[in-house]
Amino acid sequence: MDNSKQIISELLEKVITNTENFLGYPVSKDFDYDELMPFLKYPMNNLGDPFINSTYGVNSNEMEKEVIAFFAKLFRAEPNNWWGYVSNGGSEGNLYGLYLARERYPKAMVYYSESTHYSVQKNLHLLNMPCIVIRTQDNGEMDYDDLKESMRNHRNVPAIVLANIGTTMTEAVDDVQQIKRVMKSLAIQHHYVHCDAALGGIINALTEPRPAFDFKDGADSIAISGHKFIGSPIPCGVVVVKKANRDRIAMAVSYIGSSDTTITGSRNGHSPLFLWYALRKLGIEGLKARVAKSRETAEYALTQFRANNIPAWRNPNAITVVIPPQPKVVAAKWQLATEGDLSHVICMPNVTHAQIDDLIQDILNSTEDEPLGSEMYELY
Length: 380
Ligand SMILES: *Cc1c(COP(=O)(O)O)cnc(C)c1O
What we know:
- The chain has 380 residues and is α/β, with parallel strands linked by helices.
- It is 41% helix and 12% strand.
């Protein structure tokens, strides 16, 4: 007897429930791509470089190029010196940025803060790049004095800095201009700055005054996640780099007669279509409205937590509200990620005041005093 129908419906039910109570991860769930459903019947594949037509015709390359152009402009890239692609997510975008950095400066030292996303260490390991972890300030932002001390000892080699534009736990934003000032003060002339802007790229680009993180501020590449602030049924991301740096690696493989400029060969052809569609529907104004809505909810959450004697804080402009680790039942129900003595609620555009109220009730009603500790967290 084939019971796959039942298995599928059970999974669907679970997915629906878990999507409802979703406050701990930076993933938007308020997207509507119904109009694009017919494309699920076709083997979309944006094989290779999006800017070079391959012979594989079932693709969304045209949309992908528009998505990249949108972000190149949003991140103030030099008009004729940008390139990029829609990746499988922020992690791949970080891998790509660090890869270009290594090809540019093979003997460089990499610097990143201790609040950096866990995937970066693995990426550096894959790329076999030496690195130094920099201390962070209490809010999760890079400690620039420690950066300076560390760089001073390695002034003889180029510097590659991975800056966080919204850290995973506290959404702290490293200041790219400050990082550049540190390098200038040490007369380090060869440097590369990659920005991990997985969640914070869109948010910070639409913030006034604008934090220093984009190409105009001195970034050499920027990676964002597509399924986070915009939202997508398939994890995806966007990486924007300087075209000159992309051309360097394209030349390196030209002897095989290919423009193998992306990490993977076959690439998702559906996700560029989702991103293109969302950007078309929202435009800059729509994105701004989403940012404003998220901030308003974060402000509300902060006030309500404090009113109920739950310690809480947030970085300026962040949509992440930091709270202490919560009892297991609460953390599990609301999918609250926890690291060390920090947990958080991320006020994505779909998060409502009612959900914040419910969460607070759950916290107040919880009799369990055993919080989800860091040990537990490491299992995931
Ligand atoms: C989510 C996140 C990543 C990883 O992005 P994926 O899209 O999940 O691969 C990297 N860095 C930061 C700061 C993140 O928040």
